[in-house]
Amino acid sequence: MDNQRKKEVAQTFAAMFARSIGEALTNATGELWPLEILNCANPPTPKGMPVHYRLSVEGAFSGECFVEFSEPQVMNLLSKMLREPVTEFTDAYSETFAKVIASAAEGLVSSPSGEYGQLRFRVERVSGLAFGGMYVVPLATSEENADIQVLLYFGGELLDTLSLFQDSTSERKADKPVVAPHNLKLVMDVELNVSLRFGQRQLPLREVLDLSSGSVIELDRMADEPVDLYLDGKLIARGEAVVIDGNYGLRVTEIPQPVASYLTN
Length: 265
Fold this sequence. Notes:
Layout: H1 3-29, E1 36-37, E2 50-59, E3 63-70, H2 71-82, H3 91-109, E4 119-126, E5 135-141, E6 148-154, H4 156-175, E7 194-197, H5 205-209, E8 227-231, E9 234-244, E10 247-254, H6 260-264
Antiparallel strand pairs: 1-5, 2-3, 2-4, 3-6, 5-6, 7-8, 8-9, 9-10
Helix pairs in contact: 1-3, 1-4
């Protein structure tokens, strides 16, 4: 694989991982950490001893990459997560931070685009690594009071299988037939899964770990606001929640655009 192809494949994955790890850190600390790819020939050298985690991937593609933080940055993040000073990076703290990276990895699977399909991840801290020959993508944030740098090192197997996966995905999209409106009658009896969303909420990791029977989570939606109806991750209607014979239901009050347009585009 030539260097240009390596760059394309690695940066596509890195961009999604940057958003996911940023969201995981935001949820864990309650502060914004908008990470993005740092486009520069020579990224700044992180201050302090590096901390490495191996991210092993299995599923639609496979291989491994390594995530590098600096120890002072990790300790600062842990202090914000736990709301207490962290003065020594112990094994217990290392496992706590590994859970944040694992959460970010799982975010790749549950992303709205669903681009990467079903994947399985394993995260573990490693040391004494030599990164010769690996392709590296630097991530950083310029958010005020949220300076952080992350390096992603890609193994050859991961780049190769990612490239094959992206090529096959592009071919499937190119070959995917478009459903013409006059052919919809052929699939009228096909059952589709729809879901009702009452709201959502971002929670710090510590609050998620503290959940127990009887816990109450406040959502980001007022009780009198309409709820959303989704088809395959796309908003198709809004309305009022009702109860029908003991079951929840929806009285539709708004349809943003004709539902058939989601099937014919």
